[in-house]
Specification:
The structure holds three protein chains of three kinds. Chain B is mostly helical. Helices cover about 70% and strands about 0% of the residues of chain B. Classes of the chains: A alpha/beta, B mainly alpha, C alpha+beta. The interface of B and C includes residues 36, 39, 51, 182 and 183 of B.
Chain lengths: ~425, ~210, ~70
């Protein structure tokens, strides 16, 4: 295995000299530039076991939100009759842009990861799933044309743009020709997925890392990050920063360092939403290192790897209510507690956010609703939304006190957190 | 099989009586089926009773249907062969009306078998076949009206009218409830609402109040 | 290993028969959907539990075998 062609990773890995994001993020890296930069992907024939061992040793975990150890997933799917690899780049989280940024800038590294995963599990077919209507579709198709033909056979699939469409069982359901809605588990995709076969569903960033481990090994991978959480991650930074962008950082980088990379904090912030709309609000602490270990005691987790720094001038409750209403609308509508519970939660939040007379009653209603919704859906959508809402009520408690008497401390009304949905399921 | 037993008028009467009872029971099953799907309660009985009655009375109807078919086969005057009982429109006497009876029997058999094996069939296949119930009743009714020779008897006409009214009102009730229960409706969250400018304006107004205070 | 009740929330359509047949272990939320006690089914309720499973119009109620501390 070649030594790293990238030089020693610095303490904070910005776009310049990043592992996953090349120096110039604007145009997709061509095949020849890609091979020049990273070196060719070594032949994996006969070395599948040692690659799996390297992945295990590297401590690579899923970069899609759940953070599941990649080696375990690979080992479970391997040995099936004819498994399928699905690269999940759908990124249904509106606040997150990192998967699209990765695919747009570095499609070949993602495809290398697909090849490596396919070699380990013994798959001859692979799908790269991305959101319909995104530029990534064309980028990937162009990249595939540049590559030499061979196994596995890689297809590009344009998935409906819905929040839950990227959930692994929903994605598999759609690939099987049905709606992009989650299914009842068990069986999970690794047991029975596309066409009834064992399916490895892995985030595109995880696969890109796999493409690097296949070249440079586990020890190299561990030179970044912390011993417990090695490697780099892509995060999307939004809100009170000079430039909202996707940056690559080592795990363990602090919030203030992330803000620096994004043009600095341009206005005072009141709270940070970590992990997207299944994530949690936390009180602003610029020295907070971004690791699961540091976030978990605060009731948060890296999740979809979005960091939204909420300006102090905006109403956190209004933002939360908008997102809650969006999440209610993104329910697949299959399970009663989610279908009926989330709109009720959104309505209660709207009452509070607007400071209407019923705000105090709405505040009491929320725990009642929560108790009836938690863990009663087929997927994590209702639970993730509840976690987001409950963290808001905790972190914005002072603001809630104001709203209950019809006041609000915000001075600006522009929305900060993005929401958009195509409304399609097929 | 027909001989001493077959030439007795008792068999003939049993065949016709069991036919009438089958039609009555099927009408009740129809109404109970609609009531089940509409989540109706019968009086103050729990809803599972409605469903259980539907299932149990349908099995009772199958028993009477069995007696009706068996006696028809035995009775020589009915001119029903074993084939014409299940294959429609091949019988010797009154092929049309007996054929309709065969169709109805086939449909009821399909409904019964699929319902007993429902767990293995899956919801979609079961439901697809169960829709045939809406067809099986009018076919049974037509068979009864066409094949009988004493349909002019007042009591029989009154019974038939009662069945028609019962089933008719069940159909109306079913048509009225189409479009929901629950999950057939679109979820009420409307993502477009999120961009409603009103929300942000109100917030600004509230902010203005705070600033003024 | 013990038997536990579980609802398939996708199939469930809020008929409510299960809660009528097994009120000791199943109650309904404000929208009519079942909240199921996920603990081991007591022996004296085993027959009622099987009856509740058989009577679900959508076949949404299941009995799963689990080790005592496993979650669904």
């Amino acid at each position: 295995m070649r030594a790293a062609a990238l030089g020693e990773p610095r303490r904070v890995t910005s776009l310049v000299g990043g592992r996953l994001l090349p120096t110039d993020g604007r145009e997709p890296t061509s095949w020849s530039t890609h091979v020049e930069r990273y070196g060719p992907l070594p032949s994996l024939r006969g070395r599948e076991r040692s690659l799996l061992a390297a992945v295990e040793q590297s401590g690579l975990t899923g970069r899609g939100g759940a953070g599941f150890p990649t080696a375990i997933k690979l080992a479970t799917v391997a040995g099936g009759r004819s498994p399928v690899v699905v690269a999940n780049g759908t990124e249904g989280e509106p606040a997150s842009a990192k998967d699209k940024a990765l695919i747009r800038a570095n499609p070949h590294l993602v495809l290398d990861g697909v090849l490596a995963a396919a070699a380990v599990v013994g798959a001859r077919e692979a799908v790269v799933a991305i959101s319909r209507g995104s530029k990534c579709v064309a980028t990937l198709q162009a990249a595939l044309r540049q590559r030499p033909p061979g196994r596995p056979n890689i297809l590009v699939a344009a998935v409906p743009e819905r929040f839950v469409a990227g959930e692994e069982s929903a994605l598999v359901h759609w690939l099987n020709g049905r709606d992009a809605k989650p299914t009842f588990t068990p069986p999970r995709p690794f047991e029975k997925g596309v066409g009834g076969r064992r399916t490895l569903v892995q985030n595109v960033e995880t696969l890109a890392n796999l493409g690097l481990i296949a070249r440079y090994g586990a020890d190299w991978f561990r030179t970044a990050g912390t011993p417990a959480e090695p490697g780099t991650v892509l995060v999307t930074a939004r809100g009170a920063v000079g430039r909202q962008r996707v940056v690559e950082i080592e795990l363990g980088t602090t919030l203030s360092e992330v803000a620096e990379l994004c043009g600095g904090l341009v206005e005072p912030m009141q709270a940070v939403l970590v992990g997207g709309y299944f994530g949690g609000w936390i009180r602003p602490d610029l020295d907070l290192p971004l690791t699961q270990a540091a976030l978990r005691p605060l009731g948060a987790s890296l999740g979809a790897r979005t960091i939204a720094l909420l300006p102090a001038s905006v109403c956190g409750l209004a933002e939360t209510a908008r997102v809650a209403r969006y999440m209610a609308g993104e329910s697949a509508g299959q399970c009663g507690p989610c279908l009926f519970g989330l709109p009720a939660v959104a309505a209660a939040l709207e009452t509070i956010a607007l400071g209407l007379p019923g705000a105090a009653a709405a505040l009491n209603r929320l725990p009642q609703l929560s108790a009836q919704i938690a863990r009663r859906g087929a997927c994590a959508h209702p639970d993730g939304t509840l976690r987001f809402v409950e963290s808001a009520l905790d972190v914005f408690a002072d603001e809630v006190d104001l709203h209950v008497v019809g006041r609000c401390s915000a001075t600006r009304g522009e929305p900060v957190l993005p929401v958009h949905s195509s409304g399609e399921w097929r | 099989m027909s001989g001493v037993l077959g030439s007795s008028p008792a068999v003939w009467y049993l065949m016709r009586a069991s036919g009438v009872v089958t039609l009555l029971l099927l009408s009740g099953v129809f109404a109970l089926g609609v009531a089940t799907t509409n989540r109706q309660q019968l009086g103050r009985l729990p809803r599972f009773v409605t469903a259980a009655l539907h299932r149990n009375i349908s099995l009772l109807a199958v028993v009477f249907l069995g007696i009706h078919v068996a006696t028809a086969l035995v009775d020589p005057y009915a001119q029903v062969s074993a084939t014409s009982v299940v294959v429609p429109f091949v019988g010797a006497g009154k092929p049309l009306w007996i054929g309709l009876g065969a169709v109805s029997l086939d449909l009821v058999a399909a409904l019964t078998v699929t319902s007993l094996l429902r767990r293995h069939l899956g919801q979609r296949a079961w439901k697809g076949i169960h829709w045939l119930a809406y067809l099986s009743w009018p076919v049974a009714l037509a068979h009864g009206l066409g094949v009988g020779s004493d349909t002019n008897a007042l009591w029989l006409r009154a019974l038939t009218a009662g069945c028609v009214v019962l089933v008719g009102s069940a159909v109306v009730s079913r048509l009225r409830s189409v479009g929901g229960p629950a999950k057939q409706l679109e979820p009420r969250g409307d993502p477009v609402l999120v961009h409603a400018p009103g929300a942000t304006r109100r917030t600004r107004r509230l902010a203005g109040e705070r600033a003024a205070a | 290993m013990s038997d536990h009740l579980r609802v398939n929330p996708i199939l469930c359509d809020a008929y409510g028969h299960c809660a009528e047949l097994l009120p000791e272990l199943i109650r309904l939320d404000e929208w009519g959907y079942p909240i199921v006690d996920a603990g081991p089914i007591p022996d004296e309720l085993a027959k009622d539990a099987r009856r509740a499973v058989a009577s679900c119009p959508r076949l949404a109620l299941l009995i799963e075998q689990r080790r005592g501390t496993e979650a669904a």
